[in-house]
Amino acid sequence: MYEGNCGFQWEMIEYYCTFETWIIIVSVVGGILLIAILIAICCVCRKCKRCSIRKEEKRQAREQDVENRRAEERRAAGEIRSTERNRVADEIRMKYGILKEKENGTDYTRMD
């Protein structure tokens, strides 16, 4: 029969594969399995982290869009209020005769 390093003859197992050899073999295989499991866990965690980062970026982009839209609405409302204030002020000036006529669309005159 074939006899290898560990000896496949059950009669010879005591000589070739001692208890210490089995401890070494089992610990090496266990270490390899542990390393493989840790590598798999790290890969899964990296993938999850990338997904969570993308989700966070999308959420921030949506919030930024909402904030920009609100700012645009506030700016437009402010322009409407400003225009209304100027119109009312012009009516009051016309009522009391202190409205200045605009030359060329501006209140300023050229100094010579």
UniProtKB/TrEMBL annotation:
Instruction: State which residue ranges cross the membrane.
Output: 22-45
Q: Mind telling me which GO cellular component terms the entry cites?
A: cytoplasm; nucleus
- What are the protein's UniProt keywords? Membrane, Transmembrane, Transmembrane helix
| Any single biological process term in GO | protein import into nucleus
Ranges for the region named Disordered are 57-78
Instruction: Spell out the PANTHER family in the cross-references.
Output: PITUITARY TUMOR-TRANSFORMING GENE PROTEIN-BINDING FACTOR, PROTEIN CBG20567
Protein name in UniProt? Uncharacterized protein
Which lineage is the organism of this entry classified under, starting from the top rank?
Answer: Eukaryota, Metazoa, Spiralia, Gnathifera, Rotifera
